[in-house]
Amino acid sequence: MFKPILWKTFPRDFLRIEIGFALFGLAITLMIRANLGTSAWAVLDVALSKLTGLSVGTLTVLVGFAVLLGALIMREQIGWGTLANILSIGPWEDFWLARIPSVDSNLPLQIAMLLIAIALMGLASAIYIGVDAGAGPRDSMMLAIKRATTLSIRVARAIIEVTVVVVGWLLGGPAGIGTLVFALLVGPSVQAGFKLMKVEPHKPVVPEAVVED
């Protein structure tokens, strides 16, 4: 259930994956601060943050572990990157939220922040997925549902995202037109990021012990 660690490239991979998480956290922060609506999971995290008084980053970590537990119960394989995802993105969110102010009544700037966030999300995803150290907890849950049912990945992801955004919205999270724009554009953004970074997901992992020089 745990992908092997390639120790020879681990320092480089760790640095690269953290850059990806830093950009990912920045993207989420820009969406939150633009006040036009965020991604589905951010809607839930912000709603829970308001209800509990905990920071958005802390809730991102806690929700990540809860989702990971569900994926593990469904026997989905994870890697060190899965744990790094949970432990890193939340603190990066809090870091950026403490430095980027909220924007209201400035629609051009808010739209620019939203679009920049979506572009950054695609680039960040390509950077950390390219390390191939294991899917994030939310993607792991999606893969687990797909494997355990006859649903396609697209349908499994849609069910998860719709459920999360509805629950988050009912709890008072920042769902809005930006949430819909994000849903429509994040796929092309990630695809562009993959092409830019020359990422080929789902490459077979060869254990270091059998790699020949």
Précis, in short:
This protein is an all-alpha fold and about 210 residues long.
Describe this structure in words.
This protein is mainly alpha-helical. The chain has one domain. Helices cover 69% and strands 0% of the residues. The protein has helices at 10-34, 40-52, 56-73, 80-97, 107-129, 137-148, 153-170, 177-197. α2 crosses α3 (56-73), α3 (56-73) packs antiparallel against α4 (80-97) and α6 crosses α7. Residues 204-213 have low confidence and may be disordered.
SS-based class:
mainly alpha
Q: Could you tell me the mean pLDDT? A: 88
Rg result: 17 Å
Distance between the termini: 28 Å
Helix content: 55-70%
The biggest beta sheet is recorded as: none
Give the tally of structural domains: 1
- The number of helical elements comes to 8
Shape estimate: globular
Question: Which key features would you list for this structure?
Answer:
mainly alpha, disordered C terminus, 69% helix, 213 residues, single chain, 0% strand
Produce the secondary structure layout.
Layout: H1 10-34, H2 40-52, H3 56-73, H4 80-97, H5 107-129, H6 137-148, H7 153-170, H8 177-197
Helix pairs in contact: 1-4, 1-5, 2-3, 2-7, 3-4, 3-6, 5-8, 6-7
